Amino acid sequence: MKISIDIKYYNAKLNIGLEDVRNAWYLPKDLLPVKLITIMHQGLLTYRFPPSGKRISYRTLKQGLEKKNLTILLPVQLLPF
Question: How far apart are CA 4 and CA 2, in angstroms?
């Protein structure tokens, strides 16, 4: 069983896709997609990478966005009980 996620905007330079403003996904080649953490930092909308904590602002991400419809299929993480 898989979950389908529709990416509407994509930044090819940063390999980040936006499902909507609150849901951003890092899409590395040959690896599983990683959901970025959305936060407000000093009054600006920013996204954090979970392993490193590096921040990218929405303003930086928006500079290279192009409209593109992508679909990501992720495996379902079921609870063990």
Answer: 7
- Listing DSSP states for 23-55 in one string gives -EEE--TTS--EEPEEEEETTEEEEE-TTT--E
User: 40-53: b or e for each residue (b if 16 or more CB lie within 10 Å)?
Assistant: eeeeebbbbeeeee
Query: Do the beta carbons of residue 56 and residue 63 sit within 8 Å?
Result: no
The whole-angstrom separation of Cα 38 and Cα 44 is 11
Token pair of 51 as six digits = 């392993």
Q: What is the model's pTM? A: 0.86
Contact call for residues 44 and 57 (beta carbons, < 8 A) = yes
pLDDT per residue of the chain (81 residues) written in tens, 0 to 9: 888 999 999 999 999 999 999 999 999 988 889 999 999 999 999 999 988 889 999 999 999 899 999 999 988 888 777
